[in-house]
Amino acid sequence: MSAAGGAMSADAMPGDGGAADSALQELRTLDGEARLLEHTAAVLNWDQETYMPEQAVEERAGQQALLQSLIHQRNTSDRVGELLESVRYRYGEDAPEGADTDGTHGRRNQDGGGANAAEEKREEISREEVNRAFVREKDRQYRQSTRIPARLVRELAETASRGQHAWAAARRADDYNQFKPWLEKLLNLSRETADVLGHDGNRYDALLDQYEPYARTDDVTAVFATLRAGLVDLVGRIGEAPQVDTSFLDNSFPADRQESISRRVMAALGYDANRGRLDRSAHPFTTTLGAHDVRITTRYDEKLVTSGLFSTIHETGHALYELGVAESLHGTILAEGTSLGIHESQSRMWENMIGRSREFWTCWLPDLGRTFPDQLQGVSLEAFYRGINRVEPSLIRVEADEVTYGLHVIMRFELEQALLAGDLTVDDLPGAWNEKSRTLLGVEPPDYAHGVLQDVHWSFGAFGYFPTYALGNLYAAQFLTVMEREMPDMWNAVAAGETGAILAWLRSNIHRYGKVRSAGTLVEEITGQPLDPSYFIDYLNRKYGEIYRI
Amino acid sequence: MSAAGGAMSADAMPGDGGAADSALQELRTLDGEARLLEHTAAVLNWDQETYMPEQAVEERAGQQALLQSLIHQRNTSDRVGELLESVRYRYGEDAPEGADTDGTHGRRNQDGGGANAAEEKREEISREEVNRAFVREKDRQYRQSTRIPARLVRELAETASRGQHAWAAARRADDYNQFKPWLEKLLNLSRETADVLGHDGNRYDALLDQYEPYARTDDVTAVFATLRAGLVDLVGRIGEAPQVDTSFLDNSFPADRQESISRRVMAALGYDANRGRLDRSAHPFTTTLGAHDVRITTRYDEKLVTSGLFSTIHETGHALYELGVAESLHGTILAEGTSLGIHESQSRMWENMIGRSREFWTCWLPDLGRTFPDQLQGVSLEAFYRGINRVEPSLIRVEADEVTYGLHVIMRFELEQALLAGDLTVDDLPGAWNEKSRTLLGVEPPDYAHGVLQDVHWSFGAFGYFPTYALGNLYAAQFLTVMEREMPDMWNAVAAGETGAILAWLRSNIHRYGKVRSAGTLVEEITGQPLDPSYFIDYLNRKYGEIYRI
Which of B47, B63, B271, B323 should be substituted to probe chain A, the one whose Cβ sees the most A Cβ atoms within 10 Å? Predict the structure, then answer.
């Protein structure tokens, strides 16, 4: 059954009857309506970012506000509270283990990469696990949505909207002072939000949890300490080696031809054109407009052939995740990526680990050469591979390479915690930013636009978001280790243009679960241990040790 | 104020306070929400017809159904009934005339074409007229929506959807029998709908009223009798004259270049690219996604250069109407075209009366020649003008010329009345169709696909829709007579590429009123008399008398 009916399929329904099950059914109907409205809101948003005429913007905001209030009603009504009460004893966290009707509860596919349709069917996610996850996520959503009072929701939305405008103006004018009062307001509202959401003394926990559910600041801090040391060491050694040549990329690459190869790559990676689209927008994004409608956008820089293509691969990674959620979860709160970190692990694995591998370009460089015969004539695979993996400390996070990227994130993670805790004032932020940039990256911004004002996130109050970017790399590297073990032929297949087994592995181990399993559970189930940054550091050392001959 | 707030602007609010006014305000809030949801549904629909990936179709239907039920709730709740009760004594049809605060109640601009911003402001539609129209239309909507029971709504929607599929399959297979049982069902449901909506003995009145509000079958019948005689006479005389040459149009015209001139024409006619878009779809349409977001689509036939361009002009006419509604009506039920007939008068005036005039091509033929230099080299204005106005009885309504078009409509008007009344059975329909085609047009379909199965309308139960197409031509010609009198320089301006005064006249006399004035009122107010088909017959005789030298 599709999501059209707005409720989970009968197959996923519990079989043991009773009041809890009829309450569960009603909860699913309300949840299904919220889901349809969320997808409707996504259509409005996609349209706004791609094709909407300029003067439609004000009414569109009204359409969105109405939809958001309808969604909010369906997630937070008293009836939802009552229903959650009725199902908690049966499916809640402290409930006794239920009947595990198919006997596969939680066990993951140990035989790995050879997943085919028959195996997938055999291993369907158990009803019990789905029902428990559904109640857990509805409960979490209900608690979070009802704890934030309407007054605070409104104030946050309004300040975020105005803050974003102020940030854009401040960045254009390179004037931090224009943005400062908004940053102060947004910090205060975020502290208030953290306090109503609840925490054990560290407000950052409550904010981080909005983007990386169930993650703890202390764990991230520990992981980032190891990551930081590893990155600083590697960047230092790379800095002493001769730089790779990228001069062959200094050319002009018409956008239409960039788009044509982007479309070929998307299709080859398994992105079904009947379930999505590629369009252009100011900032690349992926959005879910339906269980079978996940669209991406990109942008092309004619001076930089790799930018549009790698951003397409990145967004394709996000889209494949959303499209890979099990049918039985469609139309429910469980039918989406489980955390921003896991989402980012999918986009970054495809973009960097696969998309910037020598094997990938063994297959694709001939196509790129045919697409741009004048520009890329005579460029060897080795030269190309080294060129697209150039490492160099720079000022702008979104343009950073795979190695230095993590340092940009760590900087922001440390600064936003200090801001939130009151250990750093907004007055002192630009100085602290520049100091950290010097220490971690060895470069110092010449102005605010290339420094503290470069990112949009804080301007709409998204404190706690940044770490998910780096967590994505760490998850990806840890998953990759298992993939390589379970699919020894994986890289040869990539070189032959065959990534189907990789996608099948990701679907079977990650995608199909949607939000059923948290990020932490996925990592434990797949790799047998908690998140460990050494996999990523090892990966970088191997790859860049070879590229830079260090 | 924009529609974003979901309610009429404070300027349009009544000033006399009291219970009726607070009820009116609440009614407007509910109406404003319904309007935002309708526009949201239009975004979903536009996306579905243009860019949506194939597999999204099933969930999209679920999203649409949910929106429709939310809209229905807002239009038909008991609260709406109570509010209407409270405002009726003050603004209802039998209410005493209210305070006419700006003194302009209903008076139309007698000095015509020179409308400028200052004049338009002076002549703002009176609050009293707006409030009365608002209550009238909300009341009408409430009555119609509450009279049709939920069971019938569902059955109609389902049968329409399945009927449309059956029709498409029947047309492909050229097998009328596949469609026949659906037509029978749809006729029965339409009879039932007419009976619950209410009528004075003629069910067709109730159905026609859904598309051409406040129109009466008897009036349309009388008007069409005159029209029929005039058309048959003119078609007969044209048939005896030598046919015009169109051989220069037999060529190949690349779609991209057709699109480029379509965009130039749209812009020149005053369609603001910041308030709309042109895209491609299987069937051209216009849709309102917001008060400042009215989009059109077209399709290009590389063998027929005129088809895509005239369809663009046609849809531009519809879009200009919707975009011309007064700001004070935005976000309300009054902010749309008042009837399908008046809507069609706008599209057909721009497409045929202006777009197929000699003056229009005096201005545009040079551009078309530059766009297709190889294809149109040496084609004179006279040859082109006569070629695009070729009259010839043919089988397919949507491909018919301006003269024979009305006969296609009259045929359907007569047949659907006979079907509904039970004077004609679905078994006898194909024979009756062919007989009428022979009598009225002198041609007989060789198969069902070019005959009784050619139009989609009946397949979703739209009986009463067809006459609005021909009414559009009649309204347009009657308006044109006044325009030519009030703007004696009008055609010289068209030849110079200046259509701004025409648009200003249409805005001032028609567009800005939205649904405030019914079709009948508009015609009376603008032309000083009821609808009279002789204007259209005179127009055709003048134009085609010259082209065919008869």
Answer: B63
